[in-house]
Amino acid sequence: MSRIGKLPITIPSGTTVKLDGDTISVKGSKGTLERRVNPGVSVNVDGDVIIVKRPDDSKKSRALQGLTRALIANMVNGVSQGFKKELIVNGVGYKVDIKGKQLVMHLGFSHPIEFDLPEGITVKVDKQKEIHVILEGHDKELLGLTAAKIRQYRPPEPYKGKGIFYSDETIIRKAGKAAA
Questions:
Q1: Could you give the dihedral angle defined by the CA atoms of residues 164, 166, 169 and 172, in that order, rounded to the nearest 10 degrees?
Q2: Per-residue pLDDT tens for 56-104?
Q3: Are 43 and 37 in contact (CB under 8 A)?
Q4: What count of Cα atoms within 13 Å lies in the side-chain half-sphere of residue 9?
């Protein structure tokens, strides 16, 4: 039995869930999200609880039930509380600035990189000892995709630890030629 799929999702106050055929839409204080539900599972909204059920006990149905429940729970959590990802930019001469809806990054290339932020994603840059780029949004999927695209411009390297990495990521450092 699916342990995640059978758990009910509680709807917080101030959040409305509407089920229209195979489309579920969740509206809250942070925004609105909409997603099509796979026809292999059924979604029921009973008062302030969402329950995802499967028709049989096959492996595919169990997987779809857990996936659908997790996606809907992320939607409910996102529109009520929101999500946050933090990136750290580490390197000599690396700079990050915000210009309107663009993130302008100087990452050691001959030109600055101008990254257009998607709709629904906000960014803050905290310049302390290291540069912290804090991304916030209500769509967890879009937030993770945006953070991955930014990280892709200069992934962390293992010798000096330079690059863009997540705040909870551990970079395993390697010894250089002198240690060999």
A1: 0
A2: 989 999 999 999 999 999 999 999 999 999 999 998 889 999 999 999 9
A3: yes
A4: 26
d(Cα 8, Cα 4) in Å, to the nearest integer?
9
Residue bearing tokens 């804090």: 134
Helix (H) / strand (E) containing 166: strand 163-166
With H, G, I as helix, E, B as strand and everything else as coil, classify residue 62.
helix
Phi, psi of 78 (to 5 degrees): -70, -45
Indicate the pTM of the whole model: 0.88
Domains of the chain: 9-80 (3.90.930.12), 83-174 (3.90.930.12)
One-letter amino acid at 65 equals: Q
